[in-house]
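Memo to structure team: turn this sequence into structure tokens by end of day. - J.P.
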Amino acid sequence: MRPPARSLELTQVTEWNGGSAHTVQDSLAAEEPLEIRVNGVPLTVTMRTPGNDRELAAGLLLTEGIVDSREQLAQIRAAAPDSPRSNLVDVQLKDCEFTPEDRHRSFFSASGCGICGKASIEAIRHRALRPPNRSFHIAPHVLYSLPDVLRARQAVFERTGGLHAAALFDAQGNLIAVREDIGRHNAVDKLAGWALLEGLVPLSTHALLVSGRGGFEIVQKALAAGVPLLASVSAPSSLAVKLARELGLTLIGFLRGERFVVYSGEFRCVPEVLEPMEHTGIQR
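Reply from structure team:
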């Protein structure tokens, strides 16, 4: 799988290995600012890995609650990769009441933070996020296979070791799409944007797997896209668990090997829950 254009940068480094030093060429994950405008007015700037910028803009508007359908996106203009304005995307909306002054979001978002600048966490909780599809189910043995499938498709991570990834799967474990970015929330937005542009939102029959932790911002983005099950290879946060339980999202952490921990919505992936064990605590 070929990495997107401009997603990698090459540099010379010194590697110390086995008692000797060598000069080698290394690949770095690219990080550049992207300005997103709505109807020509600046909305935000986010640090991202170049590539799939139109999807990132569309996904951000979806997961931030600015749009909820593909029909509201009249046009998405992204400059050519070699243009001086290559880090700019302008989205033209239709049938959508939006003024930047109404948004409680800062005009700069670091790559590691998906909800920086929100007036409060309550602003996200009180959005019109709907409970996801309760009839979606996925078998435990299918869940086991997802991390390996995702890792095999992480083209930029394979070269750099420095990117997050998000992937969509169907109930049979078939990979539908995968996106990478230096910011885990950007990877999810790129995936959500792809789904929106393809007319697949809400993603009511899909599972979302992220390579990092299942933080609060990832949960709210999954809910905005209509995903019924979110899994991660690491731990969720306490607020992520609370929000998942409030809205009925299946939230899975520590998906490694033949083991995972369900923090919410076990009915979608666990056929039977056994009696509580005597010891307390989860093995990390």
